[in-house]
Amino acid sequence: MRKVIIAGNWKMFKTQTEAQEFLQGFTSHLDETSEDREVVLCVPFTTLGIMSKSLHGSRILLGAQNIHWEDSGAYTGEISGPMLLEFGIRYVVVGHSERRQYFGETDETVNWRLRAAQRHGLTPILCVGETKQQRDAGETERLIFSQLEKDLIGVDQNNLVIAYEPIWAIGTGDTCETTEANRVIGLIRSKLINPNVTIQYGGSVKPDNIDEIMAQPEIDGALVGGASLQPESFARIVNYQ
Ligand SMILES: O=C[C@H](O)COP(=O)(O)O
Question: How far does residue 191's CA lie from ligand 1's centre (Å)?
């Protein structure tokens, strides 16, 4: 039985005050019927402290958006596993396309970060996905298989979540056809040693498309950016039918 995980990725949004305001609205909108799924918020480092306190005893789990591969060292601007563990987090996003595109993340550094997360008992959410150009050139499968092959060297597939995020669908409102997302996720699963890895879809997930996305047999959850910033819209996504 595969675990269903709906995760919000706040990216570089929300101050501590805004994070607390979000939680007040969000928790009151969660349905009891959604208890069969895990709810995760991957928040900016600066809100981990306040979120950790506010979520104590709650069903909502906390995640970070990056982790360095070393435990400490001269790496200005980076955050390590032991630093994250102090906040009681369970998940960490690794290899998001924005990290790959704007911050020089490579498959090699993604692999190091994945293994560091697991070394500290955290569950990494590995993001893979193709650009519009790669899709149009018919390179989607080759690119994703290459990412998986390189990123997963030495990674324990029993403590792993994968998010298929077509880059052209991120923040654009241009959602991937649900049947196509299902097809690609099925292909990703076929390349794994552990077929029970939770594989999410990410890219313009909204309250009005989540039911259709989650009805697809290969899709085990969602990694939600923009629509996770508003309490009502993220609660509607978590409460999908
Ligand atoms: O991590 C989340 C994804 O990048 C999706 O972002 P989005 O829901 O704003 O398209």
Answer: 24
Residue nearest to atom 6 of ligand 1 (CA): 225
β-bridge mates for residue 127, sequence order: 163
Report the atom number in ligand 1 closest to the C-alpha of 204: 10
Structural contact between residues 202 and 228, judged by C-beta atoms closer than 8 angstroms: no
**How far apart are the CA of 164 and the centre of ligand 1, in A?**
11
Hey, which residues does 5 pair with through a beta bridge? 38, 221
Query: pLDDT value at position 174?
Result: 84
Q: List, by residue number, the catalytic residues.
A: 96, 165
Its sign, for the CA torsion 161, 170, 218, 191, is negative
Whose Cα sits closest to atom 8 in ligand 1? 225
Q: What is the pLDDT of residue 159?
A: 98
> Which of 10, 11, 126, 128 has the most ligand 1 atoms within 8 A of CB, as the residue to mutate?
11
Is 77 within 8 Å of 106 (Cβ atoms)? no
Whether 93 contacts 125, CB under 8 Å: yes
CA distances from 228 to 4, 13, 54, 55, 208 (A): 17, 10, 18, 16, 13
| Binned average pLDDT, 10 residues per bin, the chain of 241 residues | 96 98 94 88 98 95 98 98 98 98 97 98 98 96 98 98 97 90 98 98 96 98 98 97 91
